[in-house]
Every structure is written in structure tokens, then in C-alpha cells.
Automatic annotation (TrEMBL), chain A:
Keywords: Membrane, Transmembrane, Transmembrane helix. It comes from Terrimonas ginsenosidimutans. This is DUF3341 domain-containing protein. Coiled coil: none annotated. The chain crosses the membrane at residues 54-75, 95-119. The keyword Ligase does not apply. It comes from the Bacteria. Pfam families: ActD.
UniProtKB/TrEMBL annotation, chain B:
It holds the Pfam family NrfD. It comes from the Bacteria. It is a multi-pass membrane protein. Its main location: membrane. InterPro entries: NrfD-like. Belongs to the NrfD family. Keywords: Cell membrane, Membrane, Transmembrane, Transmembrane helix. PANTHER family: POLYSULPHIDE REDUCTASE NRFD, PTHR43044. It is found in: Cell membrane. This is Polysulfide reductase NrfD.
């Protein structure tokens, strides 16, 4: 398994973090990720991340729910087993609106949450590494991925110059994000030796 | 940045005290990480006792049948369906706070949404018990699901409001649970990363799903929350609308009215906010979270209570007027003789309803009284008593006198097992709430941090300078001209 090298710096203020993200990108470094304790609006744009298309997925799931409800009820009550309810037509669409609506919402919600978990690779027992456990408390943690061309010392110095504190170099196995809570995985904040 | 964060001093701060991000984490995690207090144990044990009473009541009902309840020939629905509608209604405030107020960008919701959403889920769990055990032969409960069966297959009646209810309540429960839990993930990760004990690392490691706070994940999380809020908003309106259809689509005098859907939804929000007040007044005191659930939060919720209480009041008067104006003899009789007439067998329940729901919330027109915690607590209980009686009035006073005087029923009083079942759902509700408040953060940590620099007390003070500036100075100081894009 390969090992990647990261230069990691901590920020304590959004007003420092935003310009820093711009400068780091402008200098040509590859930002692996910025870990924050709460959503910071505009940070995704500043980092150059594309918009998510989760909404579109939600819409498709919703439409699937609508079609499922209408087609199933139509088939059950007009084709498979016709029952005369108080002399009303077999195809009584207005009476099916409540269930159609509920299934639309149910499909959209369940589908979106599952897609969200899949995209972010979130599930019970999954262990991931975010370089500094304080990034779920009060610290914004920026990790710069070192490529073949990156000069480690320069990157550390640069990150310090844009306002990061406690800048360190850390190594991570590729594929660690799918690791599990067992003895083989690296505990939070611990470094592993370069291969 | 500071321009984006600026908010007028006209709005009071919604996080009190001098806080930074770390202090927010410390404050909200403290009750979760501390040992349970004596008060917690006492409350928990009482709740478990109530729950056991409920279990015994249900066991008796299952063994001997619904004959153990005092339901009779015309009163086929009594306490059970009253309690069902009451609990479903209570759940509505949670979704209103978490979804509708999110869409309306109401910052104050962040202090109370997590607990209110939990309340929604527990209330819906309690509500679901009543129709299920009311079936009598509960082992056949799965008959309500449309599955291929050997009876034809004979499908369920998709045209029936009772089946709509099955879909509405189960969808509502599922969506509320997903909304609540996806919001909890970042906060559980905070607890995981602070955990010192082994079982805590295990438990929160499992529960947090490996959340890291990656920017991309936050971007998706925000999109998910927004769409779930957008879905929950019509959903919550649909749920109580469908519950009201259980009554409104029938031909029983007192039920057969078109005003029911909006009237039920307003009543649901009304009773739900009252329950949120009851829970949060205790929670903020016991867990020491007065800086996050401030007097401002209490006051805003009291404003919602007086608004929805007045809507409910108008609905009561409108249906009374329509009963008279419609010239339908049965309808007018149901209102005039079964409800308004104080000397009729159930006249007292109508006037308890009117007193608790329409008259008493009017005290909240006074700002001083809205900010009185003791009165708020008292009122929150009173409103829920009133809202319970609303459902009792609708169900029992419409059913106990049928079209034929010969089938008018005898006076309906619940048996001990009906009362026990109701008490049992209180047990279930509070057992869940006590466990939630012990093991989960009762306030959304990440969301509080998100609004802290805009709405926090100490941060708002920093804007005094901007408040005194004229526009040109303000723009000069705050707008950054960046040539690089």
C-alpha cells in the first residue's frame, strides 16, 4: 500500500483561513482538504470544489417515488383486483394523491441520505483520519498533499507565512479512509513511518 | 468576511456569555461527558416505571382484547385515538423548528432544533402505538401493508384515509429520523474526538459514521439539509392534514368539515411548541445551558404559541358558526347540544378546551409575561391539557350521540388499562428523552458555531463600531476589493 505525505497546518480564524486558501492555491500547492468543525459558506468555492449534484439525485429519487406510487396503485386497483368502493371509479386518482405524495418524499429522503453516505463514505464503524482531532472542535485544519515536485520545507514555510500554526509533515497510507476501528488502523493524531 | 457576518444590534444575541468555538464545545459536551446526576436517575426511574405500567396495560389488552377498554357501540374511538392525534400533533413542532425555520433562515432555531427534532421522533413513536394496539389482533398488523398475499391478492384500500395515515406516519417518522441523525453526525464526531474512555471511543466512533469535517462533506451535508428541510416542510403539513382526513372524510356530525386540515395543523404546532417549552425549560436548567437556550428563545416560542393558539381559536369559532349557518340539523345539534351546552354530559370538556387553548395563551400578548419562565412552564402544561381535550371533544362528543337517539351511548369513562396505556407512552417518551439528553448533545454544536460570530453576545458587541458608522465608512472598512478571481 502506498504512502502519501501531507503538510498540515492549523488555523483558528476564518478571516485568516480564507485568504490563506487563495494564496496556497495561487502558489500552486494541491490542497488535499480543509477540515472544519462547522460548515463555512464559500470555502468550497474558495477551494475550487465543484457544486454537488446531490439535489439532482434527490429529484430523481422523488420522481421514482411518484411513479412507483401511481403505477402500483393503478395496477392494483384497476387491473389486478378491482374493488367497488362506494360506486367510485376504479381509477380514482385524487384519492391517491396523499400516498403518492408520501412516497415521493420517502423515496427522495431515503435515497438522498443513502447517496450522501455513499459519496462521503460514511457508515457505522468506518474510521477515517482528519489529521487533527481538534478539527471537530475549534480548529480549521488544512492538509496540503505533497507531490513529486513539492519541496517539503518550502511548503512548511509557505503555510507558516500565510498564517497557519503548528505546521507539521504527516504520512498517511492511501486508502486509510476505508480503514476500520481495529488494531491495524492508525489512531487519531499518530504518525506512521514512511515506507 | 466581517461584512457577511454583520447583523444589526436590533436583534438580541442568541448565544449569551463570552464564547469562542472551544467554549461552545465544552459547554454542550459537559452534560454528556459527566456522570448522570441524581435528578437524572430519579426522572429516568419514574419514566421506566410508567413505561412498565404501559407494557402491563398492553399485555392485558392483547390477551383479553380491546374489550378491556371502555369503548362501546358508538364510541369506537376513545382515549386511544385521542392520544394518537395528541402525540402526532406534539411531534409537529420539531419539524417546524428544524425545517420551516431553516428555510426562513431563523437563527434562533439553532438553540432548540436538536432537542425539538428528538421530541418529534419520540412523540411519533408514542403516537404509532395507539393505532397498532387498537387493532386488537395485533399479530395481524402487517395486513395494513400492501404485500402480495394469498387472499386474492386483496390489496389494501388505497382510497382510505386510514391507509393514508399508515403511509403518512411511517414516512414522517423515517424522514424525521434521517434529518435528525444526519444533523447529529458532526456533533457525534466532536464527542468521538474528545472521548477519553474506551467505550465512548467505541460508541461515538460507531455513531459518528467516520465523519471528518471535510469541506466537500460539509458542502454535501448543507445540500442534504436544505433539501430534507424542503421535503419536510410539505410533509409535516401533509401528516396532520391526513390525520384530520380520518375525521373529515367521514359523515359524522362534527367531523364532516373542510376546515379540519389547516385547523389540525395549527393545533399541532401549538401543542408541539408547548411541549418544546416544557422540555427545554427543564433541560436548560438541569443541564446548565441557559446561555444557549436563552430567554429570547423562550419568548419567540411564546409568540408562536399565542399566534397558533389564536388561529386555533378562530377555527373553533368558524366551525361553530358554520354549524349554525349550514342549517344542517345534525351538525348544529352536535355543536349546540353535545359541546357548547355546559349541562350536557361532555359540555365540561368543550369549555376546558376553550379555556386552555383560546383564552389562556392570550396572556402572551404581554412581553413581560412572555419572558416569565414560571408562567411559561405553567402555560405549556395548560396548553397541552387543552389540546388533549380538543381531540377528546372532537372524537367523543361527535360519536356518543349517533343519528338515532336509540343508539346514543352511555357515558364513556376510560378503564385503568386505557389510562395505563396513555401513561405508558409518557414513560416511553421520557425514557427516550432522558437517554437522548444523557448520550447525545441536546444542542446542535456545529450549528451554534456557525452562527456564533453573527449572533453571539461577545461577538455582537464587536459590531458596535459598525453600528455607529455611516455607509461610506462601513463599506470602506468592510468591502475587500480583490482583483484575483
Amino acid at each position: 500500500m502506498g504512502v502519501k505525505k501531507f503538510v498540515v497546518g492549523n488555523f483558528y480564524d476564518e478571516n485568516v483561513l480564507f485568504p490563506a486558501v487563495k494564496k496556497v492555491r495561487r502558489a500552486g500547492y494541491k490542497i488535499h482538504d480543509v477540515f472544519t468543525p462547522f460548515p463555512i459558506h464559500g470555502l468550497d468555492k474558495a477551494m475550487g470544489l465543484k457544486d454537488t449534484s446531490l439535489h439532482v439525485a434527490g429529484f430523481i429519487y422523488g420522481i421514482t417515488g411518484t411513479t412507483t406510487a401511481v403505477s402500483f396503485i393503478t395496477w392494483a386497483l384497476t387491473i389486478d383486483w378491482q374493488v367497488n368502493f362506494g360506486g367510485k371509479p376504479f381509477f380514482s386518482l385524487p384519492a391517491w394523491i396523499p400516498i403518492t405524495f408520501e412516497l415521493t418524499v420517502l423515496f427522495a429522503a431515503v435515497g438522498m441520505v443513502l447517496t450522501f453516505c455513499w459519496l462521503c463514505q460514511l457508515a457505522p464503524f468506518i474510521k477515517k483520519d482528519h489529521f487533527n482531532p481538534r478539527s471537530t472542535d475549534d480548529t480549521f485544519v488544512m492538509a496540503i498533499e505533497c507531490t513529486d515536485k513539492t519541496n517539503e520545507a518550502d511548503a512548511v514555510a509557505f503555510l507558516n507565512s500565510v498564517g497557519a500554526t503548528e505546521v507539521s509533515v504527516q504520512y498517511r497510507e492511501t486508502g486509510w479512509w476505508l480503514g476500520r476501528y481495529d488494531q491495524d488502523t492508525v489512531k487519531y493524531g499518530k504518525k506512521i513511518e514512511a515506507a | 468576511m466581517s461584512l457577511l457576518r454583520y447583523e444589526s444590534q436590533v436583534r438580541p444575541p442568541i448565544v449569551d456569555g463570552s464564547k469562542d468555538y472551544h467554549q461552545v464545545t465544552e459547554d454542550i459536551c459537559a452534560p454528556v461527558e459527566a456522570k448522570p446526576t441524581k435528578a437524572w436517575w430519579i426522572g429516568f426511574i419514574i419514566s421506566v416505571a410508567l413505561l412498565l405500567f404501559g407494557v402491563v396495560s398492553i399485555v392485558v389488552e392483547v390477551i383479553y382484547g380491546t374489550g378491556q377498554w371502555n369503548l362501546n357501540k358508538t364510541i369506537g374511538w376513545g382515549w386511544d385515538i385521542t392520544n394518537f392525534v395528541w402525540w402526532v400533533g406534539i411531534g409537529h413542532a420539531g419539524t417546524l423548528i428544524s425545517a420551516i425555520l431553516l428555510l426562513f433562515r431563523q437563527g434562533w432555531r439553532t438553540g432548540v432544533n436538536r432537542a425539538a427534532e428528538a421530541m418529534t421522533i419520540f412523540a411519533v413513536m408514542c403516537a404509532g402505538q395507539f393505532p397498532i394496539w387498537h387493532m386488537g389482533r395485533v399479530w395481524d398488523a402487517f395486513f395494513v401493508l400492501p404485500y402480495p398475499n394469498t387472499r386474492g391478492p386483496l390489496w389494501v384500500n388505497f382510497n382510505s384515509p386510514l391507509l393514508w395515515d399508515v403511509f403518512a406516519i411511517s414516512t414522517y417518522f423515517t424522514v424525521s429520523l434521517l434529518f435528525w441523525y444526519s444533523g447529529l453526525l458532526p456533533d457525534l464526531a466532536t464527542l468521538r474526538d474528545r472521548a477519553k474512555l474506551k467505550w465512548r471511543k467505541m460508541f461515538y466512533g460507531l455513531a459518528a459514521f467516520g465523519w471528518t469535517g471535510s469541506t466537500k462533506h460539509w458542502q454535501r451535508h448543507e445540500a442534504l439539509s436544505l433539501v430534507l428541510a424542503g421535503l419536510s416542510t410539505p410533509l409535516v403539513l401533509s401528516v396532520h392534514t391526513i390525520v384530520s382526513f380520518d375525521f373529515a372524510t367521514s359523515v359524522i356530525p362534527g367531523w364532516h368539515t373542510t376546515i379540519f386540515p389547516p385547523y389540525f395543523v395549527a393545533g399541532a404546532v401549538f401543542s408541539g411548541f408547548a411541549m418544546v417549552q416544557t422540555l427545554l425549560l427543564i433541560t436548560r436548567k438541569v443541564l446548565g445551558l441557559k446561555d444557549y437556550i436563552t430567554i429570547e428563545h423562550i419568548e419567540v416560542m411564546n409568540k408562536v404559541i399565542v399566534l397558533t393558539g389564536s388561529i386555533v381559536g378562530i377555527a373553533y369559532l368558524t366551525e361553530l358558526f358554520m354549524a349554525w349557518y349550514s342549517h344542517v340539523g345534525y351538525e348544529w345539534f352536535a355543536f349546540k347540544e353535545n359541546r357548547v351546552n355546559l349541562s350536557s354530559p361532555y359540555g365540561w370538556s368543550y369549555w376546558i378546551m376553550m379555556g386552555c387553548n383560546v383564552l389562556s395563551p392570550q396572556v402572551f400578548w404581554s412581553k413581560k409575561l412572555r419572558r416569565n419562565l414560571l408562567l411559561t412552564f405553567f402555560m405549556s402544561i395548560l396548553v397541552n391539557i387543552g389540546m388533549w381535550f380538543e381531540r377528546f371533544v372532537i372524537i367523543v362528543t361527535s360519536l356518543y350521540r349517533d343519528y338515532l337517539p336509540s343508539s346514543w351511548s352511555t357515558y364513556y369513562t376510560p378503564t385503568i388499562w386505557e389510562i395505563g396505556f396513555y401513561m405508558g407512552t409518557f414513560g416511553l417518551f421520557f425514557v427516550c428523552y432522558f437517554l437522548f439528553s444523557k448520550f447525545f448533545p441536546v444542542i446542535a454544536i456545529a450549528e451554534i458555531k456557525h452562527i456564533l460570530k453573527k449572533n453571539g453576545d461577545n461577538w455582537k458587541e464587536g459590531y458596535n463600531k459598525e453600528e455607529g458608522q455611516n455607509y461610506d465608512e462601513f463599506a470602506h472598512d468592510n468591502v475587500h476589493h480583490d482583483d484575483h478571481h
